[in-house]
Amino acid sequence: MPYLGSEEVVKELRRALSNPNVQADRLRYKNYITKVIRYMTQGLDVSALFMDMVKASATVDIVQKKLVYLYMCTYASDKPDLALLAINTLRKDCADPNPMVRGLALRNMCNFRMPGMTEYIEQPIVAGLRDKASYVRRVAVLGCAKMHSLQPNTEIDGTIVNELYALLRDPDPVVVVNCLRALEEILKDEGGVVINKPIAHHLLNRMKDLDSWAQSEVLTFLLRYRPRSDDELFDILSLLDAFLLSSHAHVAVATLRLFLHLASAHPTVQADALLRTSAPLLATCGAASRELRFAGLCHVQQVMRSQPGLFGTHYKRFFCGYSEPSYIKFRKMEILVELVNDENVALVLEELRSYCTDVSPELAQAAIAAIGRIARTYSEKCLDILTGLLGLKQDHITSAVIQTFRDLVWFCPQSTAAVCQTVGACVDSPQDSEGKQALLWLLGEHGDQISSAPYVMEGYIDGLKTELSSAVKMELLTAAVKMFLCRPAETQDMLGRLLHYCIEEESDVCVRDRALLYYRLLQRGVEETRKVVTGPKSDPSMSVLTGRQEEPISEWDSTFNTLGPLAGCDLCPQTAATSAADQPSYDAEEEISLSLGPPLSHETFEKMWLDLETLHRQTLGFPRPRAAPDTLQAALQLVKIQTLAFTPGDTVPWKAYIYTRSTETLILAELLQGDQQAPGSDESLVVSVKQQPVNHMLLNLFFFFFALYDISLLTSTCMLQ
Amino acid sequence: MIHSLFLVNASGDIFLEKHWKSVVSRSVCDYFFEALERATEPENVPPVIPTPHHYLINVLRHRIYFVAVIQSEVPPLFVIEFLHRVVDTFQDYFGVCTEAAIKDNVVVVYELLEEMLDNGFPLATESNILKELIKPPTILRTVVNTITGSTNVGEQLPTGQLSVVPWRRTGVKYTNNEAYFDVIEEIDAIIDKSGSTITAEIQGVIDACVKLTGMPDLTLSFMNPRLLDDVSFHPCVRFKRWEAERILSFIPPDGNFRLLSYHVSSQNLVAIPVYVKHNISFREGSSQGRFELTLGPKQTMGKAVESVLVSSQLPRGVLNANLNPSQGTYTFDPVTKLLSWDVGKINPQKLPSLKGSMSLQAGASKPDENPTINIQFKIQQLAISGLKVNRLDMYGEKYKPFKGIKYMTKAGKFQVRT
C-alpha cells in the first residue's frame, strides 16, 4: 500500500537513525525505531532502512532487540543478503546468560524466512533442545518445525525427529505439546506424528498439567490412537471423564469428540457422554460472546441429529433475544423446529410467530419457513398462524407464506384443502418472483379446489409483457396447461393467448421452447397431455409419516468440532486434502469407495509399480475372463477400476495391469495367469496389489469388489448389453 | 494453527496485522469485507468465513474485528476462545481495548502477540505469566522509564513457569494480606406481555482478588451449595473435593482471577427482581399513540434497585415522543427511534413512571409490532439466586489474612415484550 510521500519519510528516518547524536541517546534512538515499526505496520515500505536497523540490534535493551527482530523478520525475505549480516548478532544472543534473550534470539532467527538459513540455525536449535531453561526448549522445539518448513522437500533429519520424540518426556508441559506440534509438521507427508501405546498413556497422564489449549490439541492427537482392549479403552475413558465438564468449552467439546470416537462400539457409553456434555454445551449456547454462542449452537445441532430428545426440556434456551445477530437467530430457529413436541408446540409457535414480524425480511421469512416445517406435524395450529400473517399485507411476508404453503402441500397432502381455501381467500398477491412462482404452482396443481384460480391467473397472463423473470413465465406456462386440463372452459382462451405470446413475441429461448413443447403436446390431444403433465409423481409425504430418523453418531462425529459445520459448507478442497491426510488409515471406515480419477500415464504407472512393495498377493479361484479387451475394460470400469494394459488374446502367461483410486490412495494391481514362476497361477487368476499410500481398509474393499463381481460374470453382463 | 491475525476497525480498515508463519497477503481479507458488506448490522458478520485456501474466523469486540486466518482444520471453539483471550489480555494491559489504545501501545501489542503464539500455537496466555514477561504500561512506569531509560520487559525468566503450581508464582510477598471475593450474577430474562416469564436464567461468577504471601491453601464453603449444579472452575480448584463435600479447596493464583462461573436456569429458582407495568398502544387512523411505563421492585429482599436504565426501539413510524418522567431523564433519538430513560434508583414508595404520547407519521398505518423494552439495573449486596458464602479458611501459612465478600446482581439481557 504505497503512501504519498513515503520516500520522504524513509529518508528522514534514515537520517535520524544514522545520526550519532541520536544513537548516543538510547531513548531517542528507540523512539525512532518504534516509529519505523509503526510505519511498517501501517503498510509503508521501510525496507530501505535495513542496514540501519541491523546496526540497532546490537544493544542490551530487550525491547529494542524485539523491535529490530520484528523488523528483520518482516523484510528478511526481501533482502536476504543483508539479513545474513544480522545473523551474527543473533547467534551471539543465543549464547546469552539470560534465557529470555536466548529464547528470543532463537525464535526470531527461526522466523527469518530465507532459503539459506538452515545451515546457520541448525546448530543453535540443537543446542536449544538441550537448554536447561524450559523457555528456550519450547522455542527450539518449534524451531525444528520452522527449519523443516524452510526446505520442505529435503529429507527428514532422523536425529532431530528422534530427539523430539525423546523430548515428549520433558518435565515442562508446553515443551511436550510443542514436540507434538513440531513432529506433526515435520512428518506431515508420512501421516503425522505416530501415537503408540506408551506415548498415548504418557500424554493422558500429563493431561492435567497442560493448559487448556494444549489439552484441546492433545485430545485431537489422541483421536489417532485406538486402544487394544476394552479394559484399556475404559481406563482411558475414566481418565478423560473429568475433562467432559471442563470450564473451557473447546476442551469439553474436544473430549466429547474423542469419547464418541473411542467408544464407537459402545453406544451406551456414547449416549452417556452426550448426556454429560449437554450441560457445558448449553452453557456455551448462553455464553456472553456471540461467536461462542454460535459455535455452541452448531455443535448442539450436530448432537441433535442422533439424540433429538437430549435438549427437549431446554427449548426455551433457544428462544431468540432481541439484540442477537441474525446468524444466531437462524440457527436457533432451526433448532427450535427440531425440538417441537406435543407439550411445547403452542409456546414455540407463539415465539416463532413473534419473529415473523421482525424488521429484517430474511429473518421473517426464515421464521415463516420454520412454522411451515412444524406444520408438517401440527398443521392446524400452524395454518391458523400463517393465515393470520397474510392479513398483515406485507409483501415479503405474503411471499414467504405462499412459498411455505407450496412446500407444505407437497410434503403433507392432507393439508391441501385448508391451504387452497386460504389461498383462494387471499386478495393480494406476492410481488417477488419466488413468491409468484409458488403461487402459480399452487394454482396450477390445485386449480380445481381454488375457485378464483382462473381469474388470478388471467391477471398474470395480462401482465406478461411487464414480467421480467423468465422463471415466472415458465411456471406460468406449466400452471396454465395444468389448469386447462382440469378447468378447460375457463382457461382455454387465456392459454391460447399465453402460448401465442410466448411463441411469437418472447425473446427468452427457454420460455419459447417450453411454450413450443406444450403447444406440440397439446396438438397430440388432451389425453396425451394429461398423461405427461399430470402423471404419477413421487410421494414425499412418506418421509414425513415415518418421522425423522435418528442418525447414528458415526454419521457426524468425524466433522464434530471442526470448521465445516460452522462455515455452513463442506470442507474447502484444500483443507479436505490435509484433513484426509491427518486421518489415520484405520478409522477411515466412514466412506471409502473407489473412484476412477484422472488417468495415469504408462510411465508413471511403471515407475510406481517398480518403486512400491507388493502389499498383498491372492489367488482368486476363478480363471481369467475369455472376453474381448474392450468388453473387459468396460466391465472393470463399471466397478470403478481402470485398465492400463493387458496381453492380447490367449498368450501365456496372460497379464493385465489395472489401477483405481480412493480419496488419497492409489491402488495398483496386476492380474496374472499361467506364469510358471507364480504358484497357483495355472488354473486361476493371481492378483498382486500395491498401494500408495498404504491403506488396509481399501485393500479389503478392493478384494471385496473382485469377489462380489466375479470378472467373468461382469464381462458376460457387459457383452449382453 | 493460527496463521495470521488482522485487526479491522468499524470503517473497514486493517490497522494491524501479525503473521506467525509465512506472510499472508492482506487481500485475503477481501472475503471478510464482502461478508461485512452483505451484513446489515456490524454484528451480523458470520464468525466463520470459508475462502478457497483459508478459513477466516473473526470475533467482534469493542467495535474491532479480530480476524484470524486459518490454513488447516482446527477446532473452531479453540480459535474463537483464543481470540477472546487476546482481547481480554489487551483490555487487561491497556484498560480499554480501542483502536486508539492499540495504536498507542503498538509495541506492547506486538510483544504480547509474539509471546502468546509461536508458529501459530498458543504459548503463554495466563495473564499472570504474561505480566512477568511483559510489564503492563502504566503512567508511572512510563515516566520512570523515560527518566531511567529502562524497559517494560522482565529481565528474569518468570519463575511461575517452572513452579509446581503452574498458575502461581513462587516467592510472593505482601505487607497487607487480603483476599476479596465478588459474587456477581447477571440475570437474563424475557418477560412476555402479561408479565409472566418466558425464559430466565442467571449467569453467575465469583471473581477473586487474592494478595496473599507464600503458598496459601484456601477453602471456601457455601450456605447452599446445591444451587450450583452447572459450574465450571478455575483449574486451581480441587474437583474431587468439590464432588465429595461441596467445598471449594484451592491454592489461588496471585492477583485477579475468576474462581468459578455457574448457571442457574431452572425457572422456579430464578427470581425476577423488577416488574414493568406498561401500556403502549397505537390507534388505527390516529396519528397519536399512548405510552405509559411504570417500574417497580419485586423479590429483592429489601435491597434497592439502582442504576436503572430503560431503553426501547420504537417502531419506525414514530416521529417523536412527548413524555413526562416522574424521575430521571429520557431521550428519544428521532433518527434511530431509540428511546432511553435513565431512571436511577427505584424508590418503592414512589414508583418511577414515564407517561405521555407519541406522534406518528401522518397517514402511516398502525405499526404491527409493539416495541421490546430492555432494562438494565444493579442491586448491591444481593445475589439473586440466593447463593451465600458460609466461610473462608486459610491453611499452610501462619499470618491472618483480611477477608471480604461482596455480592452484586446485574441485568444481563433483560427484556420485556409489550
Automatic annotation (TrEMBL), chain A:
Residues 596-712 form the Beta-adaptin appendage C-terminal subdomain domain. It is a peripheral membrane protein. GO terms for biological process: intracellular protein transport; vesicle-mediated transport. Keywords: Membrane, Protein transport, Transport. Pfam families: Adaptin_N (PF01602), B2-adapt-app_C (PF09066). It comes from the Eukaryota. Its main location: membrane. The keyword Membrane applies. This is Adaptor related protein complex 4 subunit beta 1. It comes from Cyprinus carpio. The lineage of its organism: Eukaryota, Metazoa, Chordata, Craniata, Vertebrata.
Automatic annotation (TrEMBL), chain B:
The keyword GTP-binding does not apply. Its main location: membrane. It comes from the Eukaryota. It is a peripheral membrane protein. One of its GO terms (cellular component) is Golgi apparatus. PROSITE patterns: CLAT_ADAPTOR_M_1, CLAT_ADAPTOR_M_2, MHD. Keywords: Cytoplasmic vesicle, Golgi apparatus, Membrane, Protein transport, Transport. One of its GO terms (biological process) is intracellular protein transport. It is found in: Cytoplasmic vesicle membrane; Golgi apparatus. Residues 176-417 form the MHD domain. PANTHER family: AP COMPLEX SUBUNIT MU (PTHR10529). Belongs to the adaptor complexes medium subunit family. This is AP-3 complex subunit mu-2. It comes from Cyprinus carpio (Common carp). The gene is ap3m2.
